[in-house]
Amino acid sequence: MNVGILGYGTVGSGVFDILRENKEVIAERIGEEISVKRVLDLRDFPGDPVEPVLTHDFKEIEADEDVQIVVETMGGLHPAYEFVKACLERGKSVCTSNKALVADFGPELIQLAKERHASFLFEARVGGGIPIIRPLQSSLSPDEILEISGILNGTTNYILTEMREKGADFDSVLKDAQALGYAEADPTADVEGHDACRKIAILTSLAYGKNVDFHDIYTEGITKITDRDIAYANQLGGKVKICGSSRKVGEQVSARVAPVLIYPGNPLYSVDGVFNAILVKGNMVGDVMFYGQGAGKLATASAVVSDVIEAGKNIGTGVPVQWTAEKLSLVPFGESKSRFLVRTAGAKSENESKVQAAFGDVEAVDAGFAEEYAFVTGEMTEAAYEEAARTVGTVINKIRIS
Ligand code: HSE
Prior knowledge:
Blueprint: E1 2-6, H1 10-21, H2 23-30, E2 35-40, E3 54-55, H3 59-62, E4 67-72, H4 80-89, E5 93-96, H5 99-115, E6 120-121, H6 124-127, H7 133-139, E7 145-151, H8 154-166, H9 170-179, H10 188-191, H11 194-208, E8 218-219, H12 227-235, E9 239-249, E10 252-262, E11 275-282, E12 286-293, H13 297-313, E13 337-345, H14 348-359, E14 363-365, E15 372-376, E16 380-381, H15 382-392, E17 395-401
Parallel strand pairs: 1-2, 1-4, 2-3, 4-5, 5-6, 8-10, 10-17
Antiparallel strand pairs: 7-9, 7-11, 9-10, 11-12, 13-15, 13-16, 13-17, 14-15
The chain binds L-homoserine (HSE).
The site of L-homoserine has 10 residues, from helix 8.
């Protein structure tokens, strides 16, 4: 079986290495050898083992009928989209690690693969090395998925962990995450929650078989989280984590990405540092958690190779993926409910009565800052929270409670 790789960057070279180093193990598992026939990259790699198979011309892969599986690890939308489409049109299976491509064109490329009896697979796309997409589509297929919540971004989990454990400041920890190779090229996508948003949109689409446009998901990053918020979370015995979550509410689904306060009873509580985890609640199986490295060269490449193997076992039929272009109905964000940890500027005496008038009974939290008044609300809708916060007028920050 012959593979072509588009893009010899971090993940593409990882795929190349795994297919070489684990050649025998893989051949034993699928009963056939997988060889990398061509690797496309604009650059040259003198002395690298890729040299004999390197090409600068996509057509050498597209037109080669011996190449049955194409790995797309170029990143970005263009020309990745055009290349992937061309390969699928020729009946080649495609395995990708490209988040933008899957989030923007997932249903279209899945449909095209289906028409050509080929596969379009993207196991690496949500949790890096964590197997989540295949389990969601096969192992959990007897269940109705009631809820998915996950720590879906290693950079922000690392930042929040370091802030909590070492009192480190945001900017220096972000630099560390970049040095570890976790952060996106533009780390705004990490810290503003856009990366986690794309991932929960993909997971939710796969859980319900219909499309969730990531633009429709309420997304809040961690840039407003300060050491004071973390001190209040500590006082309450919890941790602040940025979570992507979706939950079935009647015939609709409510989804969001936001920093949340998590207590020790929640399995996501102990997921720290650059690790990711995804907690899935099925109506029969109950809670199942998937934990591991959400990024990194070999972890991500391992997930891509698992797709190559799966595609290889299903040549001529394709691996079915349930995700159509039909839009999934989302609960309007204003109607979704939470409890909130709220901090207001000014002493307790200045705030207490107006807070009670606006929010009703609340539970005060004292983390030792006399010039602030903080409290935990009862469960309320986002719209009711906004209205009450406007009425009080002195809110500094709020964190939802998981
Ligand atoms: N930037 C992502 C993260 C890795 O920090 O988790 C790739 O999805």
